[in-house]
Amino acid sequence: MRLRSGVPIAITDPRERVERSVAPWLIARRRFLLLAAGAPVAFAAACSSPSDPGGQGSPDDQVRSEVAAAELALIAQYQSTIAAFPDLGASLMALAEQHRAHLAAMGDTFAGAEIPSGQQTTPIQRGGSAQQAVAALAEAERAAAQQRRQACLDAQDPELARTLALIAASEASHVPALGQVPT
Amino acid sequence: MTDEEALAAAISGEDACVYAYGVIGAHVKGAGRRKARKALQAHRTWRDLWQSRLPGAYLPGSAAYQLPFEVQDTESARRLAVLIEDRMVAIYADLAAATQGDERADAVAAASECATRSVSWGGPSLAFPGSSSDR
Predict the structure, then answer these.
(1) Record: contact B131-A29, CB cut-off 8 A
(2) How far apart are the C-alpha atoms of A113 and A72, rounded to whole Å?
(3) Are A29 and B101 a contacting pair at CB < 8 A?
(4) ipTM field
(5) Rounded to a whole number, what is the distance in Å from the CA of A60 to chain B's nearest CA?
(6) How far is A4 from chain B (nearest CA, A)?
(7) Chain B partners of A3 at a C-beta cutoff of 8 Å?
(8) Model confidence over A63-106: pLDDT tens digits?
(9) Is B103:B3 a contact under the CB 8 Å cutoff?
(10) Residue B82 and residue B32: Cα distance in Å, rounded?
(11) Could you tell me which of A74, A93, A71 has the C-alpha nearest to residue A82?
């Protein structure tokens, strides 16, 4: 790894630096920028690559719909937790926003989807503490990461698989992030 | 990127992490040192696993590694851990895209481990981890 012109470069053998490591990093960076900016149009274009069987009702469409539904349920659980414990709002809002980005990455049609009522989908235990509510979120994130891993295995389009691998990693990382939330 | 290229990137990335955690472990104490030791072992295990699937993959060796910044205290050691873990997530997302079945499942598991460790070292939790070189 070497710092040059302010751009961090991968740990790599200097002899191979350009060929093997730097170029993939640069390419990956551009792709992530699009995703991070939540550009659904760019993502939709990537999804309709030739390797994607495409079309309504394709296996990959099924994967996207299931992931989108699961993301909506997670957002609803965050919302009901924030409603019950407003003091947690600042910490939890940022994580909920990441699930919105995951949702948007499943395609244009899901970006503006209506969040199901938190009351119905994920009741906060009456009289439960903030700690319990955050622990329940952590459990939901753990399960979500596992589900996303399975969805990634089911994906046929390599770009969908890549996105789902990143979403799985993001949700797994929410577990320690929730552990740092002051309750 | 072919599956072999993605596998080779994972092997050299993990090998670099093993090297980096040697440096990190020398600059943190107590629980941090235990965490660094565990992380080093995890990266070594992944490196060996991937290497068993791509025998003969080229490894430059620790002498070839140069850190992106000088590690001289706990804070810079922590920053390096966050950086390398995040970069491994990107490498593993490439591997997941280039493979299928068990190999892809392992790539996702490894990506999740790395993202989790990045946050546990104080890194930010991200919607799409692996883009630390953007920041």
Answers:
(1) yes
(2) 8
(3) no
(4) 0.95
(5) 14
(6) 9
(7) 68-69
(8) 999 999 999 999 999 999 999 999 999 999 999 999 999 999 99
(9) yes
(10) 13
(11) A93
